[in-house]
Amino acid sequence: MVVRGITFYIDDPPVEIKYLSEDFRLAVNKAIRAGLQSGITSRYKLSNLVYKDLRSEHQIYAQHVVSAIEIAASILKNYRRAIRKGMNPKKPYIKRLMMKAENQAYKLDRKNGEVDLPIRAGLHVKLKIIVSDYHRKYLDNPSYSLGPLTLLPGRAVIAFRKDASKPYMPKAALALDTNEISLDGIFVNAKRKKATAIKSDYSEIPIIQQRHYLRRKKLQTKKAHDRRTMRKLCRKEGRREHDRIKYRLHETANNLLSYAKDNKAIIILEDLTGMRAQRANPKINRRLSSWPRRKLHQIIEYKAEWEGISVIKLNPRNSSRTCPRCGSIKKSRLGKIFKCKQCGWQIDRQINAGINLLQTAISKEMVGGLRFSLDALQHDPVISI
Ligand SMILES: [Zn+2]
What we know:
seven-stranded antiparallel β-sheet; binds zinc ion; alpha+beta; Nucleotidyltransferase, domain 5; six-stranded mixed β-sheet
């Protein structure tokens, strides 16, 4: 089963929603506090402890109370895990206004885009959600079942579930190295055995990061006398930056996945876990923040899972230093172009890293009987996707 949360904006949310969310948040926080005081860990025991009290103190639908306890239990679980790991977490509580309704605790009219949500016995409220063509794809497909509904100020996130698509038999492979401004690597079609150099550019991201960084810095000087306003404005800048980058990342992931799907290709990426920009200069550290790259992988992976596209992640060790033709490993510093002294092979360093990822996948027999020839790759044009 694959789940995907789809966000809908709510047209003119009724005021009852705000009261319900406030009540819900309070119930979650009460349950968290009770759990902390009694040292209870399981959801079942927490429910036994607080359900009755919460039911009598909050005039909300019984299912919502159950869902509040469930959220509290998972927050407590994360808190305890952090303690076990030796971190020093703050006492948990939820700050933002939210509520979660399990799938049996609300009704969705898929045709008219209307949510029927019980507040308490006998009182229901109707929410009009704004439906675009993008949302229609989910609403109009009856094979997608509904998961929980999460209400946030002004919007609703509805989980759609479907049976995991059976991954197709790969007829091609797309191996990409993830760099600061682009994904680079090769595409190989199993039948034609021909390799094509591929580039997917997102060079706008560091530009956006730099622009917002400068704006925040300016705000910090300009509003130095008023720290509260300064922090507020900086947070707003941060949110804008975040949204803009996320939009670019989704765009890149969508292009990549539709290319893979059209060609029935398997996707090969490097495993970024454990990778950190270790530089002495904090300025460079900031510039090379690995966040967008990790986020991009996350987006690619969950979208691929939904579409039934296989993604393999490999240890990138030596992938930028190895010559894919003769296998020798370079020791000296790398320039923009990878040049092999042993056999004369040369190509863009980042594309070379992608080729090595594919070689590794092939040597580990992860992509079936894929074979390809490196000839011509050096001279053919790079395809942008
Ligand atoms: Zn070589």
